[in-house]
Amino acid sequence: MSAYGHEMEREYSAQSLSTRGGSSLSTRGGSEMGSRYTTDAGVYMSPFAATIFISGLVTVGMSLLSLILGLSVMLSSCQSRNSGVVELYRNTQNYDYCMNLALHAELNGLGSDSFPAICKDINRRYVKEGQYRKDLNITVGIVEDFFSSFRPRNDGRDVVLMDADDFFGSKTLHIYQFINRVDEDTNYLKHIFVMNLYKKLKSDRWPLILLSRKPEKLRNTTVDYLISVGCRDWSSLIMRMDNEMQMDFQEFLSRQRSILQREGFRIIAVISSQMDALSDPRLGDRFFKLPNPIFRYSAADHDENRILEE
Question: Is the whole model's pTM more than 0.90, yes or no?
């Protein structure tokens, strides 16, 4: 090759290198410019990353919604609980008032007309919700514990006085049509517990004397009833003569106590649901008061006596 040809080849090679270098530089520069442009315009995100990001936002939103709903439920619950506490407090106040009023009514021989209307509902709940049954069960347990500690002496002079009128229960209610269902339930419950106590004392060989407010002229009917409900083998049944019907029952019992003591009997205990049978401290060594409903209808005994007479 001539010198001229070599010179031309060198120039061509130089131009080719220059062109390739420029292109490479241009490409690098373009690439760098492209990266900067993408960065300035926004963040590039793949579809998978976008899905995760959106799912995260939904999860946070749902968590906030659940928190709001939870707080709403808690607030509503607190309001309901506070309302329930207030209602319970009011009911407790009414219950305590009626129970204390019932005690004073029994002590003073007051009738149902001395009670406010609220006590009628309290009375119904006292029986229907089982508290009256619990009180009867506790009292009978106390009586049984007392008598389990000793036995009557062999001379037959240790006696227990029981209120015969407490035995009138479910059967009399069906026959004599007492005032309402609550009265029926209360008398039925008392009848059951008194009968169980009577049988327990009889099995322990305690002589039992029954006392009744009913007139002597109803003796046969009263005896027939007591026997029909399983009350048998009492030592005696004391009832009021015609000239004693106007006498206060406490005074009547005081006279009977004197008679029994003159005959050599030792009254170990008196068991009754009524205060007029438990007011004389000389009547016996121990008194046991059976619980009553908050109030009793004063007409009940009168109606029972009237129908017995018929």
Answer: no
